[in-house]
What does this fold into?
Amino acid sequence: MRRRRFLETTVAWAAPLLPTIACDAVAPEASQYPFDASFFPQSVASGDPKPNSVVLWTRVGGPGSPKTRKLQLEVALDPDFSQRVPLGDGTSLALEAERQWDYCVRVRVEGLTPATDYYYRFVVTATGERYQSRVGRTRTAPANDADVEVRFSVMSCQDYTGLYYLTHRRALLVDVDFIVHLGDYVYETTTDPRFQRDGVTRQMSFGDRDGTITLGSDATQTFEAARSLDNYRDLYRTVRRDPDLQRLHERYPMICVPDDHEFSDDSWGQTATYFAGQRDEKDPERRANADQVWFEYMPVDYEAGKHFRFDRDAAFPGELRVYREFTFGRHVQLVMTDLRRFRPDHLIDEAALPGRIAISSEQFAQMGEAIPEWAVPYVEIETFDDGALRAALLAGWKQGWTSDPDLPTAADLSGLIALWALNALIDAYNEWTTGDALAKLDPKSRPRGVDFASVGKTARYSSFGSRYFVAPEAFALIAKMRFTESGGQSENVMGDEQEAWFTERLKSSNRTWKIWGNSYTLCPRDVDLSSLVLEDPRLARRFSLSADDWNGFPNRRQQLLDELDEVDNLVAVTGDSHCFFATTAGLPVKSRLVEFVCGAVSSATYKVILEGGANGVPATKALAPIAGAVIAQDNPHVAYQNVADNGFGAFKVNGSMLEVTFYQIPHATLRDRNLAPLGRDDPSLESPPNEIDVAKATKLEALFEQTTFRVRSGKARIERPTAKGFETWDEETQAWT
It folds into this structure.
């Protein structure tokens, strides 16, 4: 294990700052050293603040690639470092950055005072001269019994490609204690045409091109995804060079969990979903690469203990536990969950043919469910007519009768097949043959079941009707059947150990507010498009917009929220949807939980994704202008929605209320070259991290619209301010009252 030691994840100890010990009694070294960005190309960061500790991070650069690089850490109570905090036996702590961990350094500093600002810097020595990093500011959590207001911002989905981090620049102007980052800190693709179409001004690139996954290409470029260790490091090295993100890390500690893009879009466990079931995309080595780099670059204090080291050879998924909890005074318990590592596959098989039967009549009987009127007749092809029909079709296949990709292959001609699909196959066969035509099948007296077309699938190898845009009634039946047959494992999103920990922590908490840091959206989002005039008939029905988030695991969601129903003041803060929502949990979930979904930092908004033809369906462009209105109309639990803008949420929490303000900016503004970062040579960026340029701040504030809501303790109702006071969202009337 010594070879696997994480470059000074070794815990640093800081002596308690007791009132009888004057900090400036420590013999000061130089108050300032020359700065050279080449030694600290990703600047500094802090994370996971607790009352008496915090994690500090940097990456050390420099010429060559030695096995180790030496550096020191210094901590003080002021940005001028005149009041040094004792570290170990002196005023600095000696560290080593190791090549095997990309020269990243992560240190837990202990023995600190609660609710206190600390300043820190790293120092290297080169050619006899000492060079410092930029000065970072961090803040410890309040004492567990402190009756104080807690302030934090929530963000996620910070795509770098073609877009500027104005959201981070605006977040710097909101005075908070810490940042909650819910994932998609990086995006693993250079340019994914589904949602990264703005790669003109800023592009991601990989040095190790041979180590990538090729996703496709067009006339101008090849679309690639990270796979190798160096590929994933390139993502973080590039993103952490952004001046706006650097400033955010330098100013506030961050509490983060990964979502999917830190590994792969819409991933589950060790499996990617780029090719929608056309190939097996399970890749343990790639997953280990992604996890190692996240471990290297993120300032996390692992609950496994101060001696925890990431071991890429340990058994997945337990080798990297990122779910953890934080307490901020008497009023906030923050529980962060990991919703990608442990979860099973999506419930609808993307490789399934639309005409394949998902629920048979016998399975309906076993579930005790009535067969719906819209169920379709089917046959078991091997036994039908003693196998004569199947034999005829197989004989035709051997003669090359069809190469139509929308028709089943010979290998698919088995099991339970809907009559409509089989008759379509017979029609195609009859058009080809010069011999005797095959008779089409009569639906009378056939058993009826649910096929994959009923849940929205129109073609195999498509996320439409499987991960997204699923018909809720058919999906609910398939989900219930699989949940029952698997003993709940088909929807075991958190894994048994994490879920038991999660529910116990919330149920036993004595804090006023229980905040759930939840990577993806919890509330249902169903829309009825049957009355709209859309060019694609596939959209003329009722849909659940996503089955990749909690909406894809409805039985486990209900089971979980039922267990938490007695927990007072439970609020979920979520991301991933690239939208803003203020919601109650909503029917059929039936919970007192309140949810605030914060929009994407910079990734394509939900409206932009629809405009681009979401999930390979060009007709979604027609839905884009009205998507927000349709969501609001069809979901009475949604008190507020904004599917068009980027931004973040800022929270204030005390003993009587929780308040959130959404800061929202039009997506197109993020591409404005005139608003690009000025670079770290701009003097305003070199000011101490507690200072802000007022003139530039005023101009930036005007770009963001603010919308505020509150929840009063014990009420579980969403309220918003008006000129006459506060009004409350009423689900029954779908109005503010």
About this structure: Residues 284-297 form the longest helix (14 residues). The longest strand covers residues 117-126. The chain is about 20% helix and 25% strand. The CA atoms of residues 579 and 643 lie 5 Å apart.
